[in-house]
Design a protein that fits this description.
The chain is α/β, with parallel strands linked by helices and 171 residues long. The protein has helices at 13-24, 31-38, 48-68, 84-96, 110-123, 133-142, 159-170, and strands spanning 2-6, 27-30, 74-77, 101-107, 151-154.
C-alpha cells in the first residue's frame, strides 16, 4: 500500500515514517532526499513545479518497488500533502497500481513544531533548507483540509503510541 505522511512541517512525519517502515518492512520514499539526489544545490528552488516533479519520481519509484514486491508498504514523506490535488494525484496513481492508499496526518502544537524546526535547522539535520517557521506559517495558511479518510496522529504524544495507532490504521 501507499501511505501518505501528511501534515505541516515539523509535525513528525519523517520520524514516524521511518519508525513505521522499520516495523512493517516498508520503504520511505522522501521528496526531500529525491530532490537532493536529482538537483545540484544551485538548481534547488523549492517551487511547486519542482515539488510536483519530485512527486512524479516518487510515484515511479513506488511503481518499481511494487513490481518487485506488491505487498510492501511505501511511505511517501517530505511533502505536506496540504493541497487536494496532491492527494488526488497519488490516489489516482495508487488505483492504477492496484494499491490501497492510507493517509496518516501528523499534528502537534505550534510550540512543538517550532522547537523541532529550530533544533533541526541548528543541527543541519534536515535536507530541506527552506524548512523553517516561515514555511510552517505559509503552508498552514493555505492548508486544505484532507477530505479522504485519514488517521490523525497527535505527535505531541510519545512516539510509540503514535506508531501503534498508525499500525492499526494500516491493517
Amino acid at each position: 500500500m501507499i501511505i501518505l505522511m501528511a501534515g505541516l512541517p515539523g509535525t513528525g512525519k519523517t520520524t514516524l515514517a521511518r519508525k513505521l517502515a522499520l516495523r512493517t518492512g516498508g520503504r520511505v520514499v522522501s521528496k526531500d532526499e529525491i530532490r537532493h539526489a536529482i538537483f545540484s544545490p544551485e538548481e534547488i528552488e523549492y517551487s511547486t513545479a519542482q515539488d510536483d516533479f519530485c512527486l512524479k519520481v516518487m510515484l515511479a519509484t513506488s511503481e518499481y518497488l511494487f513490481s518487485r514486491n506488491p505487498n510492501r508498504a511505501v511511505f511517501f514523506d517530505g511533502r505536506t500533502f496540504s493541497r487536494r490535488y496532491q492527494i488526488e494525484n497519488v490516489a489516482a496513481a495508487a488505483a492504477r497500481m492496484h494499491q490501497p492508499l492510507r493517509i496518516l496526518e501528523c499534528v502537534c502544537s505550534e510550540k512543538t513544531a517550532r522547537v523541532r524546526l529550530e533544533v533541526d535547522a541548528a543541527g543541519g539535520r534536515h535536507p530541506a533548507e527552506n524548512r523553517n517557521w516561515q514555511l510552517y506559517a505559509e503552508v498552514k495558511s493555505r492548508f486544505e483540509a484532507i477530505a479522504q479518510p485519514k488517521t490523525v496522529l497527535d505527535t505531541d504524544q510519545l512516539l510509540e503510541p503514535c506508531v501503534e495507532l498508525a499500525l492499526v490504521a494500516l491493517r
